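PROTEIN DESIGN WORKSHEET
SECTION A - STRUCTURE
LENGTH: 390
TOKENS:
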């Protein structure tokens, strides 16, 4: 072996030994009140973002499953800020959140052991969704919502007066219009039902009550006003049943137009969606959950949002940004339904199809105010930044 080669191997060995070790995180998942171990729970160690997402999959995570003693462990964890999420059917994290409390910092070589995460027995809300005639609605989307803590500042309190946020997993109705939302932490919830949809903003045929009308998101027992919604009390380990939501019907209109870049060239595959300007409207968990008012532009840059009710909206159009091109290059519209993923985080939607990954960044979109008042809004022209590869 030459001296040069030996020196190189020695340097590599020193470098490997000097590399900082990863952090270690371990603990147990227990039932609150009894401290009985909860086996088979999924524990996810998730990075807490400290700025805008930097890539297509910005949140690093590790997953472990608790053993018969409720134990979990993560090794070789990179330095950063983390939080634990724990899930098991039939259980819930206490409080309004779905994350374990107290984010923590990890440095190279840290050992954060003996963490205890306590779960409570989850409650259940069960019921039916029916149309205005009392007939069951199939594939209606059901969300359970909670009121967030109200800020102390008077100006902020006004904004949060009617604000509702997701408070647990959602559900879909079956062929009898029945739904069952489980694993809810004890507390007050508001139940909202919305018609099922297909991607592109089109209501399912079963959900269209009559031409020119649409079923609208309705709170239990039968109101579109969140301030008039009736709360549903959930107790640990108990089922609150017989919750019937009678869906409301409203006049439906269309919002359509074209998306172009600064040079006037049509932008294909742009994401276009409407958001209510009403500060009391419930916050969807992700943009994808509000897909009734969402569409993609075609090769001519055209979009059409249907079943839009009266109201003041903000229309946002976001051009696709290619992060990684597949073997065949980009396909422009990403209209293929082949296997892939869609992820939404921090105002960034990431899609991967046929080996090509694109991002839609909210901060890269153009916003246009739109008011629907007893008539369709057509001929909109929205100018967005020219889509490009990163």
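SECTION B - SEQUENCE
RESIDUE ASSIGNMENT:
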């Amino acid at each position: 072996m030459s001296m040069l080669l030996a020196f190189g191997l020695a340097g590599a060995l020193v470098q490997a030994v000097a590399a900082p070790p990863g952090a270690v995180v371990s603990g147990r998942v227990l039932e609150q009140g009894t401290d009985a171990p909860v086996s088979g729970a999924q524990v996810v160690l998730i990075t807490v973002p400290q700025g805008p997402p930097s890539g297509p999959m910005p949140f690093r995570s590790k997953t472990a499953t608790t053993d018969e003693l409720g134990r979990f462990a993560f090794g070789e964890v990179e330095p950063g800020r983390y939080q634990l999420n724990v899930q098991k059917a039939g259980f819930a994290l206490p409080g309004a959140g779905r994350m374990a409390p107290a984010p923590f910092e990890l440095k190279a070589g840290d050992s954060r052991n003996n963490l205890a995460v306590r779960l409570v027995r989850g409650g259940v809300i069960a019921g039916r969704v029916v149309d205005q005639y009392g007939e069951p609605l199939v594939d209606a989307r059901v969300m359970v919502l909670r009121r967030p803590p109200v800020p102390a500042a008077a100006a902020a309190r006004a904004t949060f007066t009617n604000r509702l946020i997701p408070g647990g997993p959602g559900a879909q109705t079956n062929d009898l219009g029945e739904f069952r939302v489980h694993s809810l932490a004890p507390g007050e919830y508001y139940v909202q039902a919305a018609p099922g949809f297909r991607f592109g903003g089109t209501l399912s045929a079963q959900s269209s009550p009559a031409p020119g009308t649409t079923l609208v998101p309705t709170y239990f027992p039968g109101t579109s006003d969140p301030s008039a919604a009736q709360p549903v009390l959930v107790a640990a380990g108990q089922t609150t049943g017989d919750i019937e939501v009678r869906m409301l019907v409203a006049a439906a209109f269309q919002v359509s137009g074209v998306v172009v870049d600064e040079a006037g060239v049509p932008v294909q595959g742009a994401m276009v969606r409407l958001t209510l300007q009403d500060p009391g409207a419930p916050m969807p968990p992700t943009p994808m959950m509000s897909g009734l008012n969402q569409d993609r532009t075609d090769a001519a840059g055209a979009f059409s949002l249907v079943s839009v009710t009266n109201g003041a909206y903000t229309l946002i159009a976001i051009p696709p940004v290619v992060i990684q091109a597949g073997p065949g290059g980009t396909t422009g519209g990403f209209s293929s339904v082949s296997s892939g993923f869609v992820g939404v985080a921090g105002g960034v939607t990431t899609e991967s199809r046929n080996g090509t990954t694109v991002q839609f960044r909210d901060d890269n979109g153009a916003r246009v105010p739109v008011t629907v008042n007893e008539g369709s809004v057509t001929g909109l022209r929205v100018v967005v930044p020219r889509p490009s590869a990163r």
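SECTION C - NOTES
The domain at 3-120 is CATH 2.60.40.10 (Immunoglobulin-like).
The longest strand covers residues 111-121.
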